[in-house]
Amino acid sequence: MKPRKVPAAATAVLMLALAATACGSGGGSDDGKKVTVGIKFDQPGVGLKTPDGDYEGFDVDVARYVAGQLGYAPSDIVFKEAKSADRETLLQRGDVDFIVASYSINDERRTKVDFAGPYFLAHQDVLVRAGDDSITSPADLNGRKLCSVTGSTSAQNVKNELAPRAQLQEYGGYSECLTGLENGTIDAVTTDDAILAGYAAQDHFKGKFRLGGFELSDELYGIGVKKGDTELRSDIDTALRKMVLDSAWQRAVEANFGPAGYRSEPPPGIGAPAAETPAG
Amino acid sequence: MSSVLYDTPGPRARRRSILYTAGFLLVLAAAAWWVVTGLAEKGQLEWSRWAPFFTDSRVWTTFLLPGLENTLIAAALALVIALPLGAVLGIARMSDHWWVRGAAGTVVEFFRAIPVLILMLFANAAYAAFFDVSPERRPLYAVVTGLVLYNASVLAEVVRAGILALPRGQSDAARAIGMRKGQTMRYVLLPQSVTAMLPAIVSQMVVIVKDTALGGAMLGFSELLASVRPISANYGANTIASFTVVAVIFIVLNFVLTSFAARLEGRLRRGRRSTGAVVAADAVEELATPGEHVGHKPEPPARS
Amino acid sequence: MFDFLQGYDVLGAFWTTVQLTLWSAIGSLLWGTALAAMRVSPVPVMRGFGTWYVNVVRNIPLTVIIIFTSLGLFQTLGVSLGAGTFTVINFRLAVLGLIAYTSAFVCEALRSGINTVPLGQVEAARALGLGFTQVLGLIVLPQAFRSVVGPLANVLIALTKNTTVAAAIGVPEAALLMREMIENEAQLILISAVFAAGFLVLTLPTGLFLGWVSRKAAVRR
Asked: Which of A44, B174, C82, C121 is least surrounded by CB atoms within 10 angstroms?
């Protein structure tokens, strides 16, 4: 056997594998002056990657403001996608410095990560067709067709507690739900009102959908940081308070959710004990 | 064009054929009409939903092409890793030692009997639970792992079929000049069977490319199918248009691969310098399921 | 040790898998035969359609087809296949998608079977004055079917494995339940072993049994 050939082939395989996977290993906080922020990439109005490779939405505005207060120039912010199921792992591993991704504060998550904020109070709600007057209260959802994304707690909430006789379709993303809602095969899409408002505010949907305004739950959005990083957490709290005070917060809300005719809550008490007490 | 199945049509058969043609076209047209009006009625054909794919190159550069790139990376990695593994398994299945044969056979039969999605789900959860892999890359690893486990088993059978397809004279001649088993395999059988296997390997690439889409739908792997999500989030939930464009890209990509495999097979079958032995491109469908398929007599060539 | 199975209907999920497989198998056998007949028919348009169908469908990922049945056929075109609830609609849509996909492979298997029928058989039939439908239905297909039991068994096993893709539109079959259990329970290895075993039980005996049938059924020449 010609021994030269095997190492060459093996090296080629290894090189291919490395070349294919080595890219995109963005750094954490320790590589100079960059800051890595986890956001959603596919939620219009909240966190969205746009075709020109930029990012927009309320969470993105908050992230940019906070990063600015922490001393980073806009060009030093690296945005990374934080899918719902990956958020705790991303923080624990230090893949991102903090996460602004419609991240509701709850006890289970608080055992794994720390939260700055809350910076926004959202409620679980439903989105229905603008002309559909038959759904005016949560009980009206009984016997109707609901849609949400796979494995989301919102849909189970409605089905288990509010409207047990509602049917539930689950898809990988909200866009699929909206296709059904638009075409009349689905009666209501349910998740946080901020996310729904973001979709409804898109040019294509103006005037087509309305929010139910049911306030089915209270979701306090926090900024996730690594467990135990109290310094970063309090710095972010300070930045958030400043954002509310100099009305940048209000401007961001109006710019992102305004077109949907969505009445948002006043800013929640940031870092105030009130936000922490529910957890005990 | 005539076929052995029917006579050259006379005047009556021609009239009937025209009638059938008209009827069939009518059915097709009715189906197309139903789809088009249905879509139009629901506003799915509005130009604003399709325009981004034709007028906005950024849709391609930001979403579709990176998705396609990930699809191809995953498929290529899976093939490159599965090939040597499959070769080892395939050769081990022809070993003279019963325990080597048995072990390799068990592995091959096991992974061919289990859906690739189950393998991917397992790999994804295993990487999350037992390894320190970044969530960003975990879906790629899981998809590639699932594909490798499955395709190594399929390719093992392709390799075995390739070696068995060679004329017996090759190994007889090798033995006659005093080569040992290992030498026969390395210098005589493997090099020739690689050529014979090429069409089947290219054809298996199509299967791999199609299976990567499972990762996009079920594991959050950012491949071509998953690029529908950010696109439809940006352009007013144009899901129908996005899925259609993605489907067309898949068809074109796989059609190129399929045609390449067919041409390769044709060349090898006609080739003067090779033994003419070949594992057909469509044999992979058969080799992909558990059970004994290797060593059947080849199908006679198509007739029509 | 098997506490983690509490509260999960594993058998029910595999029963759904079996039902998906059986209905799709029947449907794709019928539609696949029709496609094969079109591909060898004297009418050029039908031949063209058959070829086009097989080439397009074989090159699309099944995942795309299944999602399309839900999003395109149901959500947009309003095809609910006579069902009223999402559970039933999704099941039927998945069967439809699996039929559309699998029949392309059935068609190709049958076509190769048609090629194994000796020329003399066909020529003798034509000499007797049989038309195309009679030649195909009385002489060619019966022999072709007997010679392709083996390849069709492979298509059936592949179909059994492919039913997992129905999870993409929320049909509660084995793969969807496995994903749910992995998310909620800690025993990853045991859970995976249970589902792997389930599929081994479904696919291996099918392969062995149909392998035996195929040897019995083969036309001796």
From this structure: C82
- The CATH number given to A35-122+219-279 is 3.40.190.10
B229–A175: do the CB atoms touch at under 8 Å?
yes
- pLDDT < 70 positions in chain B: 1-2, 272-275, 294-304
The full set of domain ranges for chain B reads 9-42, 47-287
Distance CA C49, CA B250 (A): 20
The stretches in chain C having pLDDT less than 50 are none
Q: What is the per-residue pLDDT for A112?
A: 93
Contacts across the A-B interface (CB distance below 8 Å) = 98
Distance in Å, alpha carbon of A259 to nearest chain B alpha carbon: 14
Q: Which of residues 181-210 of C touch A (CB under 8 A)?
A: 183
Question: Which range marks the domain in which residue C193 is found?
Answer: 10-217
Q: Is the Cβ–Cβ distance between B119 and B150 less than 8 Å?
A: yes
What's residue C98's pLDDT?
98
Scanning C29-48 for CB atoms below 8 A from B yields 40, 42-46
CB contact under 8 A, B132 and A93: yes
Q: How far, in Å, CA of B258 to CA of B210, rounded? A: 12
- Cβ atoms < 10 Å from Cβ of B304: 13
Residues of C in contact with B121 (CB under 8 A): 175, 178-179, 182, 192
> Residue A185: its chain C contacts at CB < 8 A?
74-75, 78
| Neighbouring C-beta atoms of residue B275, cutoff 10 Å | 16
CATH number at residue C118: 1.10.3720.10
Q: Give yes or no for B243 touching C (CB within 8 A).
A: yes
Q: Do B233 and A89 touch (CB under 8 A)?
A: no
The verdict on B37 touching C (C-beta cutoff 8 Å) is: no
- Place domain A124-211 in its CATH homologous superfamily: Periplasmic binding protein-like II (3.40.190.10)
Min Cα–Cα distance to chain A from B234, Å: 7
CB atoms within 10 A of CB C7: 9
Tell me: the pLDDT tens digits for A113-125?
999 989 999 999 9
The pLDDT assigned to A21 comes to 45
Q: How far apart are CA C174 and CA A3, in angstroms?
A: 47
Above 70 in pLDDT, residue A162?
Answer: yes
Q: What is the pTM of this model?
A: 0.89
Mean pLDDT computed over A191-197: 91
CB within 8 A of A180, min separation 6: which ones? A145, A147, A169, A186, C71, C75
- B293 or A39, which is more confident: A39
Interface partners of chain A (CB pairs < 8 Å, 3 or more) are B, C
Q: Is residue C53 situated within a structural domain?
A: yes
Q: Topology of domain B47-287, per CATH?
A: MetI-like fold (1.10.3720)
